[in-house]
Write the structure tokens for this entry.
Amino acid sequence: MWVRRGVALVALLSILVSWTAMAEVLQDVVSNKYPKPFFVMMMTRVTHAVVLLGTWAVWSRTYRPAPGLEAASFPTGAFTWRQYLKAASLVYLPSFMSGYTWYLSLKHTSVGANTAIVNSSCVLVFLLSACFLRDNVSWLQLVSVVMTVGGVVMVCVFRGSDAEDNATPTLAGYMWCLASGVLYAIYEVGLKKFTMAREDAFPVANSFRMVGLIAVLSLLTLWPMLPVLDVAGVEPFAWPPLDVLKTLGLNAVLDIWLNISIVVLIAASTPVVASVGQVLVVPVTVVCDRILRSYVMPPLAVVGVALIVVGFLICVLPLQRLCERRAQKKKNKSVEGIQ
């Protein structure tokens, strides 16, 4: 149990760092230097396919089972390749389109508002988990989600605009951002339902395999959109200059880090805990704005940040179990009084 919680904590910290870094690194590139989000997405998918599947292949070839344990020379854990290909075919499109619409939104939203809106998808994750995963969602988790979303709203409303933000906020940008959040929620719940099992002996290694397969399917099925977008004039193709290519390479590394961390966090916890935890990117963004731009957040926005943090703590701390124990004690005392 404690090992699983430790893995979840490390994965969450990785998500917060990589997500914030990607937003800061890419906003100027996608907005001004190289506004071609579809090509950027395809480049990240090439990196995913090569690095992640390559890493999994090396691991599987060098894996040696512990003494006394039987294992295949090419282990796959709880899922066969056919099962994973079927699962990847169900979740790769929400995964790709979530990233693509997020890139589209960067040019037309501030970093703080963007991360806040995308991560408020925890509401939809909560509803989808209750419907499709049969999770035992508690009233405390509901309180946590409400507090978190309330905090996000307060941050967005009272935060104001950043003078040095490179983006020009528009309604279309926020609609793209909202679409990204919805698709991301579908992706998270789909991952948990179709690609994870407690009996999997190699959850981290199979996370590499799954994300790599999602990338391969994206490349095989979506590459024809590049010439289509070029001919239509939506995204005229042009190879990025060297400085932009270096930035995109850094983004690809961060994107691998982010996606693996997301899969590991969901595997080690639940989609609800993962989505609520990712909203902590908002306080992280506030700290970054303070350090990088000397931005001072208004008091009411600070209250919103506090709600986000408290909502997350309610979600992850064993408060529900404590309440149930107290209720059981009261019940036992009442029974003893009657007797």
Summary: The chain has 14 helices and no strands.
